[in-house]
Amino acid sequence: MPATPALETRDLTIRFGGHVAVNAVSCAFHPGTLTAIVGPNGAGKTTYFNLISGQLKATAGSVLLRGHDVSGLTASARTKRGMGRAFQLTNLFPNLTVMENVRLAVQSRAGAGLQLLQLWSHRRDLIEKADSLLESVKLLEKRNAMAGALPHGDQRKLEVALLLALEPDVFMFDEPTAGMSVDEVPTVLDLIHGIKARGDKTVLLVEHKMDVVRSLADRIIVLHNGTLVADGEPATVIASPVVQEAYLGISPEAAGQTMGEAAR
Amino acid sequence: MLPNNPIHSILSGDYPRSKALSVALVIVLVSLAFAPFLFPGSQPLNVAAKICVFVILVASYDLLLGYTGIVSFAHTMFYGIGGYGVAIAMYNFNAGWGALGLGVLAALVLAMLLALLIGLFSLRVRAIFFAMITLAVASAFAILASQLNEITGGEDGRSYRIPEMLRPAFRLFDEPVLGVMINGRILTYYLIFFAALILFLLALRVVNSPFGRVLQAIRENDFRAEALGYRVVVYRSIANCLSAGMATLAGVLMALWLRYTGPDTTLSFAIMIDILLMVVIGGMGTLYGAVLGATIFILAQNYLQVLMGQFSGMLEAAGIPLLPGLFHADRWLLWLGILFVLSVYFFPVGIVGKLRQMKS
Question: Do A121 and B13 touch (CB under 8 A)?
Answer without folding.
Answer: yes
